[in-house]
Structure prediction request, 300 residues.
Amino acid sequence: SMQWDSYYTLEDINTWLDDMVLAHPDTASIIIGGRSHEGRDIKGIRISHGAGKRAVFIESGIHAREWISPATTNFIINELLTSDDEEVKMIANDYDWYIFPVTNPDGYVWTHVGYRLWRKNRVPYGNNIGVDLNRNWNSNWLGLGTSSNSLSNTFAGRGPFSEVETRTLSEFIKNMADRIDLYLSFHSSGQLLLIPYGNTTDPLDNYYDAMKIGRRAMGALSVRYGTQYTTGNIAEAIYYATGTSIDWIKEHLHVPLVYCYELRDRGVYGHLLPPEQIRPTSEEVMDSLVEMILQARRLG
Ligand code: 0X9
Ligand code: ZN
Prediction:
């Protein structure tokens, strides 16, 4: 089992997912959300206490080097399956959970065996390698905040969904989209909670509800360790970014609530967050997730 004080390889994470399903056969099952260029599965877990419930979807690790993202997601899986906390048990029970810790498996493996700060997938384009999988979704594709140069870390690919990872995962999501109440995308870093859209500062249809729910969730996040997150539209809170997952989920699948977490920290370690911070980062995010769902219910 995981100790939450070190980062794990893809192989370790996938074995751990299998172990969790073996230990919780009535509620947990393995799901395959898609595949990668190098032929790996995008492996995840479904947690369900009975058919026909509304769903929460968690996509993490789309950027390979952001190791705190899968680590936090694994912690959430563990809490949903093993916690004795009444509120955690309640959210675990009330929803069907679809959770993918590593949605860029080739990139994640490369950060362990090749280059620690790799971000993109591993597809060769000319002399360069890799598409930014968070610029390749079919929403304002190749708009602001991305690049058509394959050397760039924000290379959008040769077309919307040119990459097998985004193409297969988006199909999986599309096929269950009418059940999703809440979609979360985990990244690092900067301590932000972001809402669509990345190409404009114009408010969303449900901007005020999304902001209110997000701010209250970040209030809950701050209680345990005092960690401050800023809630805002992608374009106003950081920079323009197009072809991102949450924009596509919102624009094309009409999921009401979608958020991108930019996890710890705020510029000291960045993507190289020390493993001692895995547990506190994960705990406070879990606190925020409980509050987010309670607030979404109140307003929804
Ligand atoms: O640039 C990005 O893709 C994200 N920042 S990061 O430093 N993790 O690369 C911000 C994108 C915000 N939008 C979505 N996540 N959809
Ligand atoms: Zn990222």
Remarks:
- The first strand starts at residue 28 and ends at 35.
- The mean pLDDT is 97.
